[in-house]
From TrEMBL:
Keywords: Cell membrane, Membrane, Transmembrane, Transmembrane helix. It comes from the Bacteria. It is found in: Cell membrane. Residues 295-309, 394-408 have a biased composition (Basic and acidic residues). One of its GO terms (cellular component) is plasma membrane. This is YihY family inner membrane protein. The chain crosses the membrane at residues 29-50, 97-121, 142-163, 183-202, 214-235, 255-275. It is a multi-pass membrane protein. Residues 313-322, 338-348 have a biased composition (Low complexity).
Length: 414
């Protein structure tokens, strides 16, 4: 639900930013401008095809064209202008009229399609990926595609399912009639839905997968049907109650239908673009990515469990890690310990001599020594510099003499 609301808000924001209201009005104008010339070109083509479709079909098309024009124009204009032109095009095969009508229809119709193409391209953020000339050529091709689809859909809408009923007779007529009336409009809706999806697919410079256009096509089709019904109810009420406005209702209704069609198609494109922004890789790609992420989490959890089951290693002795390297001369090898005597000092002890700081040698006087010698040794030791600290930094400091303690020790020794 939260995702649907987010996509809806994003669709409306993009639609407002891309000005689809103004673009819909522009497209509706070009569609209305191209309609007369397009009908002339189509009628001329049907006149050439009369030998294949039969004269009855041509007469039925003539009646439909005059009835449609009568909803927009006055009866006088129909009798004096439209009816002679339609009959001349269908019966005499006027090539010049067909040619001029085709050129005008291609120009105005491609302009309407170019509005669709540019707006859809902007909605997908691909405006700079295609130049103006290429966009116009793409719009022309899509317009021809739309005209070809209209040639198929328009007669189906005009003749309805009754035309198919007349093709079958006999015992199967009732069964076929039931099937045709039940499936006619759903099949026609599927054809229109497929055409809108294909239009979305071909309009963008970087084409996405065809099925990625289905949501927007569904939105466009449903929205157009709803707007068409609302317009029909609205203009029926106006034509009944307001006689002055009823004379202008037909052309305005036609323009509003074109506007509703353009708005529905462009809003469907904005909806597809909003879905593409939120889920750029599609449902199948997102499902595969979710499976890969789930497998990665499972493997990581199993690895953590195996690591937790392993025994913890024994704690290392801090003294071993902090031990210092031994020096070649036998100096201090570990912090917090006194420096061991060097080899020269050891030899001096063995031969019974002591090397003083001033370079003089003093012979050891027995194990205990005399009081005088003991006192002299302690005085010499007091004058010697203090050994280096455990951190090995800085010069040795001289220890201050302590006469009171030395005198007390001398009295004890004596």
């Amino acid at each position: 639900m939260r995702a649907a609301l987010s996509v809806s808000r994003r669709t409306l924001a993009k639609a407002w930013h891309d000005r689809i209201l103004g673009m819909s009005a522009e497209s509706a104008f070009w569609q209305l401008l191209s309609l007369p010339s397009l009908l002339i070109a189509l009628l001329g083509t049907l006149g050439y095809a009369a030998r294949w479709i039969g004269p009855d079909a041509v007469d039925q098309i003539r009646d439909w064209a005059l009835d449609t024009a009568g909803k927009v124009l006055t009866p006088r204009v129909i009798d004096q202008v439209v009816a002679p032109v339609v009959s001349q095009i269908l019966d005499q095969n006027r090539t010049d009229v067909i040619g001029i009508g085709t050129i005008i229809a291609l120009w105005s119709g491609s302009s309407a399609t170019a509005t669709f193409v540019n707006t859809i391209t902007i909605a997908y953020g691909q405006r700079d990926l295609r130049g103006a000339v290429r966009s116009r050529l793409v719009a022309l091709r899509l317009y021809l595609f739309t005209v070809a689809a209209g040639v198929v859909v328009l007669p189906a809408v005009v003749f309805g399912p009754g035309a198919l009923d007349r093709l079958f007779s006999g015992s199967w007529h009732r069964v076929i009639s039931t099937i045709v009336h039940g499936l006619y409009w759903p099949v026609l809706g599927i054809v229109v839905f497929t055409g809108i999806s294909t239009f979305y697919h071909l309009a963008t410079p970087v084409r996405l997968r065809w099925r990625r256009a289905f949501p927007g096509a569904a939105v466009a089709l449903i929205l157009f049907l709803g707007l068409s019904y609302g317009l029909q109810v609205y203009f029926t009420a106006i034509a009944t109650n307001l006689r002055v406005y009823s004379t202008l209702a037909a052309p305005i209704l036609t323009l509003m239908y074109f506007y509703a069609l353009a708005f529905a198609v462009l809003l469907g494109a904005e909806f597809n673009a909003a879905l593409e922004e939120r889920w750029p890789r599609g449902t199948r790609a997102r499902a595969g990515e979710w499976l890969r992420e789930t497998a990665t989490r499972v493997r990581s959890r199993r690895t953590d469990e195996k690591t937790a089951e392993l025994p913890e290693p024994a704690a290392a002795n801090p003294g071993d890690a902090d031990g210092a390297t031994r020096h070649e001369d036998g100096a201090a090898d570990a912090p917090g310990t006194r420096a061991r005597p060097s080899s020269a000092a050891a030899s001096s002890v063995e031969d019974g001599t002591m090397h003083a700081p001033d370079g003089t040698e003093r012979r050891r006087n027995g194990a205990s020594g005399t009081p005088d010698m003991t006192k002299r040794r302690r005085n010499d030791a007091a004058d010697m510099p203090e050994e280096a600290g455990t951190d090995g930094s800085g010069p040795r400091r001289e220890r201050a003499a302590e006469p009171d303690r030395d005198q007390a020790q001398a009295d004890i020794d004596s």
